[in-house]
């Protein structure tokens, strides 16, 4: 991002330098014409088309510089807005990760299902998504099961199961490959996953891994608007791994408590 700002500044500097050179050349031309005319009225009458032409060139140059300046200003504003979005997104994910760190450190005042439900709700806000879901591997059945979902069409997704390797979530779980989804990617790689009446403008699906072992999948989708980018993929992948550790710790904590109860 800093590199982009420097490019804009260099372009602005070159434009200003060019403006100075051309204005100097035009002024010199006017001085030479004025000196050659000797002040005679006849000479002025003969030279007025040249003066008008030079004035027109100056006007065109000024308009061109104004357009160039406006274009650079718009580009700079766009870069600054992108930098703000990136910083805001990073802050939201830091806040979300901190939340689940704290929940673990205070002996997990939330149960596992409560943590999953809270995570999908917060992901909606963090990523301005229309739907978010978390699937976890059921070790007994060997299937991935949607354990929490929030947002649009949540009822259609809740409780769904897939085998590892099948569909988008199964592919991400089996390969460990985060995916940025677009309509083109869906049609090319997952045509069977395109559901009638359900439009996905963009999406991100990332694996949840603990010590290089996949335990689930996190997915977010948008029906429209600005598509997800590489930054969203990287941040969601980092969060998914972080949250996977919290899920594993929560399960371990519950198992320890259960053993204590049985031994009591």
TrEMBL record:
Keywords attached to this entry: Membrane, Transmembrane, Transmembrane helix
UniProt-listed Gene3D superfamilies: 3.30.450.40
TM spans (from-to): 15-36, 48-65
Keyword Transmembrane helix carried by entry: yes
Any Pfam family the entry gives: GAF_2
Domain of life, source organism: Bacteria
Domain GAF: 111-257
Designated name of the protein: GAF domain-containing protein
Organism: Eiseniibacteriota bacterium
């Amino acid at each position: 991002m800093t590199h982009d700002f420097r490019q804009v500044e260099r372009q602005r500097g070159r434009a200003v330098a060019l403006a100075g050179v051309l204005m100097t050349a035009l002024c010199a031309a006017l001085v030479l014409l004025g000196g050659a005319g000797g002040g005679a009225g006849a000479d002025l009458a003969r030279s007025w088309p040249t003066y008008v032409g030079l004035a027109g060139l100056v006007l065109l140059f000024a308009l061109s510089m104004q357009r160039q300046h406006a274009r650079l200003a718009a580009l700079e504003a766009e870069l600054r807005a992108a930098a703000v979005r990136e910083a805001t997104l990073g802050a939201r994910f830091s806040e979300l990760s901190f939340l689940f760190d704290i929940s673990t450190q205070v002996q997990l005042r939330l149960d596992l299902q409560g943590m999953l439900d809270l995570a999908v709700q917060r992901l909606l806000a963090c990523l301005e998504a229309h739907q978010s879901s978390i699937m976890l591997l059921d070790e007994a059945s060997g299937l991935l099961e949607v354990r929490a979902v929030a947002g649009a069409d949540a009822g259609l997704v809740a409780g769904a199961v897939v085998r590892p390797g099948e569909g988008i979530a199964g592919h991400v779980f089996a390969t460990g490959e985060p995916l940025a989804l677009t309509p083109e990617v869906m049609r090319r790689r997952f045509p069977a996953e395109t559901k009638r009446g359900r439009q996905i403008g963009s999406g991100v699906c990332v694996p949840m891994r603990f010590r290089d072992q996949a335990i689930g999948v996190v997915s977010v989708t948008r029906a429209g608007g600005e598509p997800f980018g590489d930054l969203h993929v990287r941040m969601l992948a980092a969060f998914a791994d972080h949250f996977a550790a919290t899920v594993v710790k929560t399960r371990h904590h519950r198992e320890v408590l259960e053993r204590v109860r049985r031994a009591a």
